[in-house]
Batch of 2 targets.
Target 1
Amino acid sequence: MLPIMKLRSLLLLLISCTASRALAADPPSPPPNIVWILAEDMSPHFSCYGEKSIRTPNVDALAAQGTRFSRAFVTAPICSISRSALITGCYQTSIGCQNHRSSSAKFPITLPDGIRPVPQLLKEAGYHTCNLTFDDFIHTGGSVKIAKTDYNFVWDPAATYSLMNWAERKAGQPFFVQIQLNGGKFRGQAPGPAWPEKVRATLGSTTSPADVTLPPYLPDDETIRADWAQYLDTVRYTDWEVGRIVQHLREAGELDRTVIIFWTDHGISHVRNKQFLYDGGIHVPLIVRGPGIPAGRVRDDLVEHIDITAATLALARLPLPTQLQGRDFLAAHPTPREFIFAARDRADETVDRIRCVRSAGFKYIRNFYPTRPYLQPNRYKDEKAIVQAMRRLHAEGKLNADQALIMADTRPREELYDLTADPFELHNLAADPTHTTTLTRHRQALDDWMLRFDDHGRTPEPEEIYLNYLTDERPENGRNARNEILENNIQLMLRWSKEKPMQP
């Protein structure tokens, strides 16, 4: 047995060595910077997603250096609804934000207890948080404005975003930046000369209408072909912007410490895409690059855009709120989704309610206003040259059966599509007895989702709130603007609420 004094000396030496090793150990690494790149009105028409008419080298490089998701979907095909779900990590239908631009001064929408915008949670945790335009991100320094938010609820800007550029943050402080890109909105409501001139000045060339391949639900019309070519140039321009963003992070010495997440707020603004629940409206690109993200990987599992919210909090090493409905899809062992869900409700003055559930191979859509046309009157959409062209060609009897589907005066109550055999969702199988089992499975999944997440759209928006927002608040095209087309549409919606009401 060792003498007491020697034993004590050995113990002190052991404690001293352990303490020295602890002091010498590297301190915990700081959480990464996180950059969201969010483009508007754009489907996955990038080279890395199979687009052949154009090349997108910068987005392709982002995918090669990170992970590309082939089955990513938004929960709503309209900007404010999609963004309200994204920033809270909750289905818009579950928090009362399902109607487009629906919170007003007289009838404000407040979030349920325990739900706050994700940038606010990050800011409280020590992140420098910004929401910037492309130009404000690139031109580093000084004060900045808050770029597009479009949230359908009351929120506190000061508690959510900083008004100083991310480059002005404290030394060593991680940053979270949302970068808002105009995306498909660059082309405007009709093909015109201004956008091609900007494209030529920046990229050196434009896409020829003769070189584009239109989807089968669109006719080979001069206006539609020209519009699609200009849309593809918005994709090319977005690709150029992504390249500039990545280069700016590299020059700032932050690229290797930053997780970049790139996606769009919903699909292309076109006749049966934006505002609808076909894949053209809800399927979006999603690419993640940064420390800890596998490079050159393609994942085919189902992802919802509210999962980006959960993953962002996890990247920042923050606990996920119990109310969060998104999942951390970047976790080491993510919980797979059997289904994704999406919803469309009122868009501007146009009242509607559509719900869908999508598995890897099938899509089920339920129309709650089956006695109304797909293309109900809508000032925003009806001012688009492509919609005007479709209405003209339909009146002239020049649309084939697939192209005329969206022009129908009524809709089926249920739609079911085999996405492997019919990726453009043109052949409704809901009445096909050979698909009864699939129909029942998806129908039940949708019913369970609406019940579980307390779908707030089960009753129409009260007329008082509808009229207040559209006739008093008037957010579209300027406050207090008067427009005969809009007024007529509002009166039609009020009449149809009695003649063609929502069906349970």
Target 2
Amino acid sequence: MSQSLRLKDQPVSERPRERLVEHGADALSHAELIAILLRTGLKGANAVEIGRQLLQKFGTLQSLARASVEDLRSVKGIGRDKAVTLMAAFALARKMAEELQRESPVLDNPENVVRLLREKNLVKNVETLQVLLLNTRRRLIRVVEEITDGTLDTLLVHPREVFKAAIAANAAAVVLAHNHPSGDPTPSEADIKVTRDLIRAGQLLKIDVLDHVIIGRATPERPKDYASLRELGYFYS
């Protein structure tokens, strides 16, 4: 099938929009994704072909993303509106990357975990287990907060509930955290048992349990407001 045919004249299975719906964006080439933004081509060249011409002219997506309206309009078939659409799409991509960088801290030590969770946990009046889902670089994917409410002594913490979200998010590791409303972050026997049970469950699922951080409150006698079970020696290398 000639690539210069209008996209709407091509078989449905070959049209970029339909392919994206059917197979997802990752199945499309860069030129096809650009074609969706352009919507239409011109006589003798459909939107995919114009997308290829843009990539050929600018060489890389990064160079294309830095192009001005005037630069983009130098490619036949790109008018003001299409140039603006492309610039807006790349601007959104940059803003999303910045947002992800801001909101995805590296949680490779207990201080960073406590910094993230301290304020929220200070106002809790019951123990709440939180699971921090991390990627392979130890960056936060998200915090799962409603695992259990109440003391770990009386509530069953089932590995299925803890790891369900981790599996769905394709997390490489998790950090457990919970608060002690009493203010004393010293781990109880129940805290230690739950931690060891979850470490074993994580090993079976190939999801590392990196730490269990208990958040309390600092006092003049106890300036540190948290306890890390890894630092206390309850984890094994």
